[in-house]
Design goal:
With about 325 residues, the protein is α+β, with helices and mostly antiparallel strands. It has 12 helices and 9 strands. About 40% of the residues lie in helices and about 10% in strands. The longest helix is centred in the middle third of the chain and has 16 residues.
């Protein structure tokens, strides 16, 4: 069977459903037995996850969804939530104000590094923990309940169904999140967040504990690819002008201290989480979701990185690959 896809930067991506599903099944079979990596353990509840879970989903901007593996399995979204919280904060505060509180520079350091920019005292970007906490603290609401409800409503627009917080994971993160509290106090010292630290941290821990499955990840990514409109429900999830902000930061910072190699080899905006999920966005074309709990030393899903690299090569997804008009998979 031959699968042919036009290059992302040279026209519409033509997808034959059966051929694309064949690609996903091949990749799932190829990497299912991969035994590298280890599940996250610094949040006790996450250490209980089955390391053999593995799923791949693709959602296109015209509403097609292709899925293989354990795609119905729910897990907590964790750091992938940072992408969508950033969009909500941009809507609430605007681009210029956000830049006074949170930068957009990659760090080259681990996602949980306790560092701020030496000159501005801002966290480096909204994809690392410090920047995500600062971002979440800027989401508007008259109190904790209203802010949480606004956050959940935002996720619902991206996913297309009601969403819920896993209370056991939230409680586990809240009781062990001392490093995140240290970051919050450091930022408070420099005036980057408001004094109500515990309310901001609770909202951050709750957003990380939102339950999703692999299909949800793909649809959320496809919503970003579709200029902020959910391709299934047709509901707008985020204002169109902020899509470029979100995707730019995903591209440069979304994979932490692997971001440069990711951009070089795979070449599309992406975000990972210690849950084992990865989302990747092919603008105007598709969203990719992969779920596999074992992580590498940088905190990225081992199988997820492999799958995305293969998809980029086989489907010709790299944003800067102009070498051929077509990418072919035989």
């Amino acid at each position: 069977m031959s699968f042919v896809a036009n290059q992302v930067n040279s026209g519409d991506l033509e997808i034959d459903s059966s051929s694309l599903l064949t690609v996903l099944n091949d990749l799932h079979s190829q990497y299912k037995s991969l035994g590298e990596g280890a599940v996250a353990k610094y949040i006790p509840e996450l250490a209980k996850v089955n390391p053999d879970l593995f799923s791949i989903c693709i959602a296109t901007v015209d509403g097609q969804v292709h899925k293989v593996g354990d795609w119905e399995q729910f897990f907590t979204i964790q750091s992938i939530s940072k992408v969508f919280a950033y969009g909500l904060a941009l809507e609430d505060r605007g681009r210029d104000y956000m830049l006074t509180r949170v930068g957009v520079e990659p760090t080259g350091d681990a996602f949980n590094a306790i560092i701020l920019d030496e000159q501005s005292k801002r966290p480096y970007n909204p994809m690392v923990n410090a920047g995500a906490i600062a971002t979440t603290s800027l989401i508007k609401g008259s109190g904790a309940t209203e802010r949480l409800n606004r956050m959940l409503e935002m996720f619902q627009r991206y996913i297309g169904r009601d969403v819920f917080v896993d209370i056991s994971v939230f409680t586990s993160e809240r009781s062990t999140g001392h490093r995140n509290r240290a970051m919050a106090h450091l930022m408070l010292n420099f005036g980057m967040i408001d004094p109500n630290i515990e309310e901001a941290l609770d909202l951050y821990f709750q957003q990380c504990a939102v339950l999703v499955n692999c299909q949800d990840l793909a649809v959320m990514a496809a919503t970003l690819a579709n200029r902020g409109v959910n391709p299934i429900t047709k509901e707008r999830a985020v204002d169109k002008p902020y899509i470029k902000d979100i995707l730019s930061v995903m591209y440069t910072c979304g994979m932490y201290n692997f971001a440069g190699e990711w951009a070089y080899k795979i070449g599309i905006p992406a975000k990972s989480g210690i849950c084992g999920g990865i989302i990747a966005v092919v603008p105007n074309k598709m969203g990719i979701g992969v779920f596999s709990p074992p992580l590498d030393v940088r905190g990225n899903s081992v199988r997820g990185v492999k799958v995305c690299e293969e998809l980029s090569q086989r489907l010709g997804l790299h944003l800067f690959d102009c070498s051929n008009e077509e990418a072919k998979f035989e």
